[in-house]
Design goal:
- There is one protein chain.
- The chain is mostly helical.
- The protein has one domain.
- It is 63% helix and 3% strand.
- The chain contains 10 helices and 4 strands.
- The chain has a two-stranded antiparallel ribbon.
Length: 254
């Protein structure tokens, strides 16, 4: 079953189609060779602007996790032989601090339906019963509905390779900057007592941290297989996320 043909999903997809199509018409005099692409840029910036409060919430959750890390480490060590007691103590700690272990995950969850919506707009031949005219829109001659590897066996499309290459390189640069400037902060040390890092050592934690540090590069791989429209969205939103997190981290660290 195609989820994009389901009633509510098809209606939302159709509404998004109309927004992109109408905005592309407005931008066509200014961007004659990339009107639909410019529309995606504008919509992405508007969406990310609307999600700024969510980004602030995520940054606060990161600060809270860092502050609570030593106390959580102490509880895990103290009740290591009693998992149920440890879980109760952890939940009590989170409740007292008015937070949860899942705080800050909302931005990640919000991104999934947005990317899925963009993906559907530029992969479905029909939207809510009518033909999808957006598939004919191009950015510098490259159709928005094609991916880097679309019809790859039919020959090398230089324009497509150059455009996707620039977008993927941009995502890779942002991923590298994220690894350097947005690495997990060390936990705040308790005023008294031994450092939490020395008290509790999780086997394989260091290796896991190194592996997780390379996860941002998976976006590059994903962007190479999705339609150009989704790649444009991913390029912008990853750059926005990096700048937003960097600014918020530095402001909240003061």
């Amino acid at each position: 079953m195609n989820p994009y043909t389901l009633g509510p999903v098809a209606a939302i997809l159709d509404a998004a189609y109309e927004v992109v199509a109408q905005l592309a018409l407005l931008l066509e005099p200014v961007f004659p060779v990339a009107a639909a692409g410019a529309a995606i840029v504008v919509i992405t910036l508007l969406l990310r602007s609307a999600l700024i409060p969510v980004g602030v919430s995520q940054a606060r959750a990161e600060v809270t996790r860092r502050r609570l890390a030593p106390r959580i480490a102490e509880l895990r060590q103290k009740h290591a032989k009693n998992p149920e007691r440890m879980q109760r103590e952890l939940m009590a700690l989170y409740a007292a601090e008015k937070t949860s272990p899942f705080a800050g995950l909302l931005p990640l969850l919000i991104q999934l339906p947005i990317v899925s919506l963009v993906y559907g707009l530029f992969t479905q031949l029909h939207v809510n019963g009518h033909s999808n005219g957006l598939l004919d829109q191009t950015v510098f001659g490259v159709p928005l509905g094609t991916s880097l590897f679309s019809d790859f066996g039919s020959g090398l499309d230089v324009q497509r390779v150059v455009l996707f290459g620039a977008l993927l390189a941009s995502i890779a640069v942002v991923a590298t900057l994220s690894r350097r400037f947005l690495a997990p902060l060390p936990p705040v040390a308790l005023p008294t007592g031994p450092a939490p890092a020395a008290a509790v050592t999780v086997p394989g934690a260091e290796s896991l941290t190194r592996i997780l540090g390379y996860l941002p590069y998976l976006t590059v791989l994903f962007a190479a297989f999705v339609p150009l429209a989704a790649t444009i969205y991913l390029t912008l939103t990853t750059a926005w996320s990096f700048a937003e997190r960097l600014i918020l981290r530095r402001r909240m660290a003061q």
